[in-house]
Amino acid sequence: MRKLSYYIGTTIDGYIASPDDAIDFFPVGEDLLAHIIEEYPETLPTHVREQLGVAGAPNKHFDTMVQGRKTYDPALKIGITSPYRHFRQYVVSRSIAESPDPEIEIVADPVAKVRELKAEDGMGIYLGGGGELASALLPEIDELIVKVYPVVAGTGVRMFSGAFTPTPFTLTETKTFDSGVLIQKYTRGK
């Protein structure tokens, strides 16, 4: 069975975006970028992979992406209707009635869709954000890969923004970068 991994960047105080959903305040040093290109190239949008010269890099961990509408919106705003063409892409939305691209499937029930996807053969499923979606999918999340940036935001979009639901995870890996970023990998606790 495939696993759902929440691969996300956050501030020290647990915010994944600013109050207006921006993520451009996260400092991405050369060391972190090199790690992402080497270890998680598929988590970069297709147009960014092209700019970095890694468009043909094979997916290492994921072949499917589930994201919320607010995570999808920045691509739409710059005219990109299929931001991760190297994935099967699902956008969870209550406000988008029809997909703007044949490569994007709009999903109303994320839990049912993720359970369906997990039952298939294949690589992992990348949960690309948002906090509300992560909270809705918390019972299905098998792994957290958290990039903690050396920034305090004070407010914004929380990594999880839902009901109080203590859910144990076990720390399985830690990697520290000279730029001050820390990557922590957790698996669902027993």
UniProtKB/TrEMBL annotation:
Which SUPFAM superfamilies does UniProt cross-reference here? Answer: Dihydrofolate reductase-like
What does the record give under GO molecular function?
Answer: 5-amino-6-(5-phosphoribosylamino)uracil reductase activity
Cite the Bacterial bifunctional deaminase-reductase C-terminal domain residue spans from the record. 107-182
Among Pfam families, the record links this protein to: RibD_C
Reading the lineage from the top rank, the first entry is Bacteria
GO process annotations (BP):
riboflavin biosynthetic process
Gene3D superfamilies linked: Dihydrofolate Reductase, subunit A
Q: What is this protein called?
A: Dihydrofolate reductase
